[in-house]
Task: structure prediction
Amino acid sequence: MPPRLRCTASARGLTAAVKPSRPSAALLRPSTPAVTSAARQYATVSRGLSLPDDYVPPTKPPTARPGETRKAQLLRTYTSLLRTTPVVLLFQHNNLTAEEWIAVRRELKAALDAVPATGDASADIASKAKIQVVRTSIFDVAMKLVEFFDPSKVEPTSAPTASGKRVKVTYNHDLSKAAWKAVKSVTMGETKIPETSTYAQLSALMVGPVAAFTLPAVSPQHLAAALSILAPSPPQFPAPTRKKNPGYHEPITQSALQKLLLIGARIEDKAFDMEGVKWVGGIENGLDGLRAQLVHMLQSAGMGLTSTLEGAGKALWLTMESRRTVLEEEQNGGKTEEKKADA
Amino acid sequence: MITRFITEIQTAFNPFSPRAKSARLFLSFLPPNARSSGMNITTQLLPRSSTAPSKLYVKFKDGKELNIDADNMGIKSIIEEVDRHSRILQKADDLAAA
Result:
């Protein structure tokens, strides 16, 4: 082993280079007025030097991951999806291959495009319907955020601007501390998540591989079309016939659909199981049909009420009337018997 | 998991119950070509209100049947259980081939 040499001069130089109070000229360059007024002002307060604008700290290199798969971005995507999309069907997908996914999406698109257009929005619904694989853990967090965090209730805080002035700002985005606190206050500690909340009902589904089929509006016709492809159940949602849709009966599509399981749904912020989804898909003529059904039910209920209220009076009248006829007959009968006795 | 020697799988679970986790994960462990390579897989989804226990039935090539208590077992122990028999079959298969 070579003897250790004390090298105080170079060591002092090294510490001097590392210390922020004595920045080396290689790392920091003289500041310009434009830079000083920008965000990096704190670095230049004493010395009039600043970091370059494109300075990247060596401990935090830029990520090579594409933006849309980052966790923060995924969370934003999912919360936005859950806030805007009324129909989310959740499927378990067991090891579908890429070409099987392609086949499923092709059949789904064909079935949705074939739904007869009822209004202007119909074409839009078909084109915006989508089946996508979701990251379950992040989807789970997104469901919590959507249900337990209300951005409109966040108090504004004061924050310093670049010029040193303090202004009122509201940090109520989904990645904010307020959002984190709101979610934690419900899910952590003594209080249990209320059983009635949608999250408590759906959180058990967030296990294993999950795919979400989303429709941008509650349209039972489109839902029925999607169900007849993804989870056919013969009497109500029959699979397309071999003659009408040969692509559906190809081995690739069939093996894909065998591996997709409809496990649940979130429709209009409510949890539904398979039967519930079938019920929603089975509503005839959409929401208007449902309204017509309601009107009919209320009308018939009114008729039933009047007949019930009438019924008591009618029954009383009938009994009295029958009693009267019986009495009259007895009187008449008695008379006839008397007559017979006389004769 | 060794799935080469499994001929039949029957599962029934209520996905809204947290106890269905291991049955669902077991299904996700099967290879993509499981059905085309002769495995018979039937899955029954119970309604949300059902409290029936999850069922997992596995049948092997040599006729051995396993009824696994998927409600109380984790996915790791289920796989261990299934692999224990699969390894015996694999050993016999290797010896026959050699």
Observations:
- The interface with chain B takes residues 92, 94-97, 100, 201, 204-205, 207-209, 251, 255, 258-259, 261-264, 271, 273-276 of chain A (CB under 8 Å).
- The CA atoms of residues 30 and 49 of chain A lie 5 Å apart.
- Residues 7-28, 30-38 of chain A have pLDDT under 50 and may be disordered.
